[in-house]
DNA sequence: GCAAGATACCCAAACGTTTGGTCCAATCGT
DNA sequence: ACGATTGGACCAAACGTTTGGGTATCTTGC
């Protein structure tokens, strides 16, 4: 279309139409009230037409400089190669686009130093607000950031005192316990995720609470922390299974990938997931349904979480109240946990 | 630290030091030659000190407006929730940060309309260059974009006439064939991925070529296209396995997730991957090694591909030559294909 | 026919940088 | 000692917008 990228500016339009640049700006910018006062509707039409013809695109840097608003939001996640956060981010981005915002996203690997550095970097880029997908339970960085007056919301994980949109993780945990108890399981193990992530903490807590309601308690050495990936899950499962004494009949991993890793560990011991030991994951990753042994999992609305997160942020930016949200999970039972424990 | 985000500007520094804003700019900006001519080293030190103390961060919008360079690069991928592209993007971002660049990334879902719209959107955001991770074999959009004088490179997939950094996919395919032929397999099926992606095309081609060298040919109905995910892989495998006649003894999926889906399809038929039928994937996803039946796969340097892609782009932006690169794959043999076919 | 009010514009400043010029004083070569 | 050089800084314009205020011209009410 264009010959060689000669960017069209307001001045070009103005000159070509014999108008002042400010007139053109108003004509293109303000639809409702301002527009009327700025130019005749005939002129506005002329301006619009030429703008379309030449493919005018406002220079966002000029706009941001003038308005002191970048229409940029920064997103921090542990890692984008984690499907869960990648999906959340897709939701964020989708909502952002709908609002005319753009997003920067960056990995922090759950390392506090990196989180801090990347937050700083986002602010240097003059984002209007931030979305943290990697909040740590202690919340030190968040407190600081809030004190600086930076608008932000949390997604996926929550921390008291900050607005967040999360899955109802305790409920999800309860649902898993309910399901397994219903099948007759009594001996559980939990692969609990990273100790600083509210997701793992809450899912585990919900699970244990529900167990407790049936008088069941899970021994401490059957609750092991782990990374949120297959390797982490395998290692955690190894620790549980290598312990002396009787084996659990059911295993709850707070993350699908950890569950897959755990299944591997089971297989290594000649145990068949779903037959010899029930396995349940969390998030209902697209993979879960397609695995050789389909994985029971709690569906969490990852995409939706991202969308709501961004919406909450824009509300915050508009000075409106932005109450935290908790989205409902749904248990999806599959072959990895569809039969009672072996006697 | 800061009270309430009063952004520090050059003028503030200048005023506080009794200097001119241009002097401050030069002192902070140019280290080597320009700096010397701008101010005495004592003054430079004073300026630097105050800048650090106040936490001066140049306003990128002002800079971009003035210099006509945004230090932004746009990245288009099919979807970020695809681990492969997410990992490539991590590499891109890492390299970008090292160069002081920031990246916008967006999903195009491999839909031509979305690709076009997102390209336009990136350009409207005034990115300096683009990285396409979603190039289509036909290359129509790329040709247009090139004609407009927009600098870009391709990663993961390649298209003739554009600079790209890819895995040596044909070689990867050959390695798989070599391995399977070596085990004595003769009846193959290939899950070939999307027909518009050079990755799948090349991996399949390399595989078939190596087979042909041993006088082996794979019937056309044993080569099926598929989406690059577990569901796609399962569906494709279903099609192969439901066909009448003898079953293949080995199955090559051009993507690990497709391979996982295929394993599920095998399981449904009572076939045990690795025992009854060899399965090989591609990319050596972190998941591959941790699966219940560890998956043989071709390791492709995804991260590295991203890094090199960005480096190539910066070279392009600097007006230097930027020849395409092809990174070497490595076959990693695991239990899913470590024994000869059943007689 | 005249003040008042729209209507349809234009003017100019400002956002925070960068950068080619200019200018003054000190230093230097001879 | 005098013109040439240079070191050290200032000046001003420009990048492309937005926006509070003007200023003509045209209606309108009476």
TrEMBL record, chains A, B:
Cross-referenced Gene3D superfamilies: 3.40.50.2300, lambda repressor-like DNA-binding domains
The keyword Transcription appears for this protein: yes
Keywords: DNA-binding, Transcription, Transcription regulation
GO molecular function: DNA-binding transcription factor activity; transcription cis-regulatory region binding
UniProt superkingdom: Bacteria
Domain HTH lacI-type: 8-67
Cited InterPro entries: HTH_LacI, LacI/GalR-like_sensor, Lambda_DNA-bd_dom_sf, Peripla_BP_I
SMART domains linked to this entry: HTH_LACI
Protein name according to UniProt: Substrate-binding domain-containing protein
């Amino acid at each position: 279309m264009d010959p060689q990228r000669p960017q069209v500016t307001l001045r070009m339009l103005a000159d070509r139409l014999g108008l002042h640049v400010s007139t053109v700006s108003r004509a293109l910018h303000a639809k409702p009230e301002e527009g009327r006062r700025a130019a005749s509707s005939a002129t506005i039409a002329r301006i619009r037409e030429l703008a379309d013809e030449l493919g005018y695109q406002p220079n966002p840097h000029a706009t941001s400089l003038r308005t002191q608003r970048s229409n940029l939001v920064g997103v921090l996640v542990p890692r984008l190669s984690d499907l869960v956060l990648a999906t959340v981010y897709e939701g964020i981005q989708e909502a952002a686009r709908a609002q005319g915002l753009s997003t920067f996203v960056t990995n922090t690997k759950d390392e506090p130093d990196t989180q801090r550095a990347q937050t700083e970097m986002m602010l240097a880029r003059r984002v209007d607000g931030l979305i943290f997908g990697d909040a740590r339970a202690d919340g030190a960085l968040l407190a600081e950031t809030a004190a600086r007056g930076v608008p932000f919301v949390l997604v996926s994980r929550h921390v008291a005192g900050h607005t967040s949109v999360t899955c109802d993780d305790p409920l999800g945990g309860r649902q898993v316990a309910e399901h397994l108890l219903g099948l007759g399981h009594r001996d559980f193990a939990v692969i609990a995720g990273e100790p600083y992530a509210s997701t793992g903490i809450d899912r585990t807590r919900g699970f244990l609470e529900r167990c407790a309601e049936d008088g069941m308690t899970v021994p401490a050495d059957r609750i092991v922390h782990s990374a949120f990936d297959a390797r982490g899950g395998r290692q955690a499962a190894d620790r549980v299974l290598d312990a002396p004494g009787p084996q659990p009949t059911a295993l709850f991993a707070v993350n699908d990938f950890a569950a897959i890793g755990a299944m591997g560990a089971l297989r290594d011991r000649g145990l068949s997931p779903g037959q010899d030991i029930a396995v349940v994951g969390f998030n209902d990753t697209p993979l879960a349904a397609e695995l050789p042994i389909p994985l029971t999992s709690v569906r969490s609305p990852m995409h939706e979480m991202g969308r709501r997160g961004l919406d909450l942020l824009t509300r915050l930016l508009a000075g409106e109240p932005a109450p935290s949200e908790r989205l409902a999970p749904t248990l999806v039972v599959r072959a990895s946990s569809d039969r009672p424990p072996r006697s």
